[in-house]
From TrEMBL:
GO BP term (any one): glucose metabolic process
Protein name: 6-phosphogluconolactonase
Signal peptide region: 1-18
MF GO annotations: 6-phosphogluconolactonase activity
Keyword Transmembrane helix attributed: no
Family: Belongs to the cycloisomerase 2 family.
Transmembrane segments: none
Record key words, sorted: Carbohydrate metabolism, Glucose metabolism, Signal
Recorded GO CC terms: cytosol
Top-level taxon of the source organism: Bacteria
InterPro entries: Cycloisomerase_2, Haem_d1_sf, Lactonase_7-beta_prop, WD40/YVTN_repeat-like_dom_sf
Length: 374
C-alpha cells in the first residue's frame, strides 16, 4: 500500500514537472518574436534583415537577410505569411515587392515586384485585398490588387496629391507620405503633405478601385501631415504633422474624422516629426522627432475622450525616423538612421516612460521595424 502511494506521488510529481516544462516552453515560444528591419542601402546595408527578439528579456539574435534596394518601409499581412516592402528610389525603378515569409526561420522569398510608377515610395500598407504605397516625391498613391498567392497585380491608376502649402521649400511640390485603411477597410486615408490635408477614398471590394470622396480633412496651413494611425477600438485616430510638430486627435466614425484636440510633440520647432504609435494597451501614444533634440515624445491617452496629455520626453540617437513597440508593451525599439543602430528601451507600462537598456543593434541606416508576433 505504501509503495503504491509513493508511486502515485511520483507519477503526480512527474506529471507536474512535465506540465511545468511544457508551460515554460510555451511561454518562451510566445515571447519569441520575429523582427524585420528595413534599411537604406546607399552604404553597407543589403536590404531587409530579420532577427529573433525575445519580448520578455530583450535578447536579440540575427536570423536572415535578403537583398532589396532601399526597403525604407515594409508591412506584414495579418497572418504573417507575406511581407510587402517598397524600394524608395527617385526614378523609374521605384517599386513595391511581395515576399512569402517564414516566420519561424525569418526567411523571405520574393514572389514578384511591381513598379509604383511614381518616385520615392516611402510607406506601404495592406488590408489583405489591396496594397497601398505612398509615393513621396511623386506626390501620389498607388493601389495594387493582391493575387491569391500573395503576389501583386500592377497598379493601373495613380491618385494624385497637390501642393498648396505655404512652405515653398518643403511643400513646393506634391508629397503623399502615408496611405492606410480604415479599421473596417471601407475607406483609405492618405496624408497630402504639401496641401495640408488628409485625402479620403471609399473602397468596398477587391475588384474596384478606390473612389475619391469630395470631403478632405483640412489641416492648418504649413503643418505637413505625415503619419496617421487608428486606435485599436477604431474610435480615434491620431495624426503627426512633420512641419508643425503637432499631434491632432480625431474622433472617428463611418469614414469621418472629427478633430477633438491639437497638442505639440516638437516643442523646439525642429520641423522633423516623423513616426507615431500607440502602446498595445492604448494607454500611451509616442511620437518621434528629428533634426534637433532627437527623441520620443510621450503622451497619456484619456480612455473615455481619446485626448492626450504629455507626460515625458526620451532622447534617442540621431534621426529616429521609425520606431515600434513589442506586442506585450515591454520594449520600444527605435531605428536611429544616422546613428546606424536600433536602440532598445524598456517601457514602464504604468507611467508610459522609457528607460535606456544600454542595448542596441548595430546596423547601417535602419529605418523601419516590424514584428511578426503571436
Amino acid at each position: 500500500m505504501f509503495s503504491k502511494l509513493i508511486m502515485g506521488v511520483c507519477a503526480v510529481s512527474m506529471l507536474s514537472s512535465a506540465c511545468t516544462t511544457r508551460n515554460a516552453s510555451q511561454q518562451r515560444a510566445e515571447n519569441e518574436l520575429t523582427m524585420l528591419v528595413g534599411t537604406y542601402t546607399s552604404g553597407n546595408s543589403k536590404g531587409i534583415y530579420t532577427f529573433r527578439f525575445n519580448q520578455e528579456t530583450g535578447s536579440v539574435s540575427p536570423l536572415s537577410e535578403i537583398e532589396v534596394s532601399n526597403p525604407s518601409y515594409l508591412t506584414l499581412s495579418a497572418d504573417n505569411r507575406f511581407v510587402y516592402a517598397v524600394s524608395e528610389q527617385n526614378d523609374s525603378t521605384a517599386a513595391v515587392h511581395a515576399f512569402s515569409f517564414n516566420k519561424k526561420n525569418g526567411t523571405l522569398q520574393l514572389l514578384n515586384s511591381q513598379k509604383t510608377r511614381s518616385e520615392d515610395p516611402c510607406y506601404v500598407s495592406t488590408d489583405g485585398r489591396k496594397v497601398l504605397t505612398a509615393n513621396y516625391s511623386g506626390g501620389t498613391m498607388s493601389v495594387f490588387p493582391i493575387r491569391y498567392d500573395g503576389s501583386l497585380d500592377p497598379s493601373d491608376t495613380l491618385f494624385q496629391g497637390s501642393a498648396s502649402g505655404p512652405d515653398t521649400d518643403r511643400q513646393g511640390t506634391p508629397h503623399i507620405h502615408c496611405a492606410i485603411f480604415s479599421p473596417d477597410s471601407n475607406y483609405i486615408f492618405a496624408t497630402d503633405f504639401s496641401a495640408d490635408r488628409i485625402l479620403r477614398y471609399a473602397v468596398h471590394s477587391k475588384e474596384e478601385l478606390p473612389r475619391p470622396l469630395s470631403e478632405a480633412v483640412d489641416i492648418q496651413p504649413g503643418s505637413g501631415p505625415r503619419h496617421l494611425i487608428f486606435s485599436k477600438n477604431g474610435k480615434y485616430a491620431y495624426l503627426i504633422n512633420e512641419l508643425s510638430g503637432k499631434v491632432i486627435a480625431f474622433a472617428y466614425a463611418d469614414g469621418r474624422l472629427n478633430e477633438i484636440q491639437t497638442i505639440t510633440a516638437d516643442t523646439i520647432q525642429a520641423r522633423g516629426s516623423a513616426d507615431i504609435h500607440l502602446s498595445p494597451d492604448g494607454k500611451y501614444l509616442y511620437v518621434s522627432n528629428r533634426l534637433k533634440e532627437d527623441g520620443i515624445a510621450i503622451f497619456e491617452v484619456n480612455p473615455e475622450k481619446g485626448t492626450l496629455a504629455k507626460v515625458g520626453y526620451q532622447l534617442t540617437g540621431s534621426h529616429p525616423r521609425n520606431f515600434n513597440i513589442t506586442p506585450n508593451g515591454k520594449y520600444l525599439l527605435v531605428a536611429c538612421r544616422d546613428s546606424n543602430a536600433i536602440q532598445i528601451f524598456e517601457r514602464d507600462i504604468v507611467s508610459g516612460l522609457l528607460k535606456k537598456t544600454g542595448e542596441e543593434i548595430k546596423m547601417d541606416k535602419p529605418v523601419c521595424i516590424q514584428f511578426a508576433g503571436e
